[in-house]
Amino acid sequence: MVDGLRVVKCDPVRAQRAADRLGIGLDCEAALNRAGCHAGRPFIVADDGYWPPDFNAFLCALPGFGVRSPASAVTYAYNLLAVNDFAQARNQTVWELDGPAFRQLVSARQSGPGAVGTSALIGTLAAGDKLFQWGVEAGYADGNPLPRKRRWVRRLGGPAEPVESMELSPRSPGPAPVQFLSVDQYQRFLSALSLTSRGCRPRRTPDRDSAYAQLTVSTGLRRAESGLLLTCEIPVDGSGTPADCWLARGSAKYRSGRMFQVHAPAARDVHKYWTLERAVAVERGTRSGRYDGAGWRRVTAVTGSGSSLVLRVDGKNVRADTLAPVDRMRLLDVTGENPEPMMVWLTESGMPMHPECWTGVFARVSDRAFIDAPYGSRVRVTPHVLRHTFATHMLSMLIASNVAAARAMSEPNVDLEVLQLRLFEPVGQLKRMLGHRSAETTWRYVHLLREVGDVVRETLADWSEAVDL
């Protein structure tokens, strides 16, 4: 056991300066590269200069486990130190930890002093899991104490394949509180998507970002669901008329393919982005040769519509409804004069935009939009906040509409239970719109609408008095 371990980043330039100052004739960059420590990669050292060989060899082997980003490797290094600190508190080394010890680690880090969030704890377990996978291969451990489970996943055009994952998982704190925007807050955010404030540079992609926000807030699609749409799945002709579209099962959560409607304002914004910013991005990608590589899957024909949409991909007919996200991002439309990606949302360089990028885009814009807002009223806007906004306002309108219809009913022989079911029928409608598996998830929005709940109770009371119940 070694005390005083800390994480430092590999910096060949600073190392070379120190070697030159000490008069050591050493090419530090070459030496670090031979050791597997490239610039920006982390390594662990003790206060006395000791270099733990097992930990640092594991960090150098992380790219072989799919951890290629230096920033992710740094996170793994800190999580590794957390596991090491826990082991030292038990007077053990990391390699002596067993399954019950890791369960105690979960309990200690989730509820003890200095408790961390669920996502951070999952990262700690992932670091321990990969450490023991590597340790078994390197001879440091006899086996992986973290229990694993196997599930079967069916890939596009192939049989089901086994996928292993950790069985041990931290206790979920439950669903996050629902946060949504008022009309004024959304208008303020939408203005910040396209306007310049406080002398900042004009945003380079205002049409794209506004179109994505309008589409998400008017349909309630999830971040990946709206971010993985293809050009043949939503209207881009600029007619400005509402259109019923099909959300493919391959890009929908729980594979819950469903219909959604693109309203006129969102359709106009998408068309504006299509004809201006997207056309410029495609032209930029064509000039730079980004569409000439071998990684693309070329689409030569598109037939059908909705759930029956069929693409001719590399000489084979493929249903768009079954395309996985990674396959969607590789589709290249070659039916026109110039090839272009089939993804709706593109980066400035003309490449498909990964859905996760929208969280960072909205975070930067929300900081600008609410910078002058008083403390307590600032909102961190994300694509999921826009989904909550759609759900909350849509449910309010649906319930209000049904309440008005119920109050207009004058037949005294209508059963009160039938009326109550009609008043809360919008919950089922909203559940289908959002693609929820459980109605309990949808009922979270009802609890937010206290004023609507008061209206419903008042209507039921009036009805009870009218029929002398």
Care to describe what's here?
It is a single chain. With 469 residues, the protein is of the alpha+beta class. The chain has three domains: 6-166, Tyrosine recombinase, N-terminal domain (DNA polymerase, domain 1, Orthogonal Bundle), CATH 1.10.150; 203-353, hpI Integrase, Chain A (Orthogonal Bundle); 383-466. The protein is 47% helix and 11% strand. The chain has 18 helices and eleven strands. The protein has helices at residues 12-21, 28-34, 53-61, 70-89, 99-111, 118-138, 183-194, 206-219, 223-227, 264-275, 277-287, 325-328, 357-369, 383-408, 416-423, 425-434, 439-448, 450-466, and strands spanning 6-9, 42-45, 148-154, 160-166, 243-247, 258-262, 297-303, 310-313, 316-319, 331-333, 340-341. Strands 9-8-7-10-11 form a five-stranded mixed β-sheet. The protein has a two-stranded antiparallel sheet with strand order 1-2. A hairpin with a 5-residue loop joins β3 (148-154) and β4 (160-166). The longest helix has 26 residues, at 383-408. It starts with 5 loop residues before the first strand and ends with a helix. The mean pLDDT is 81.
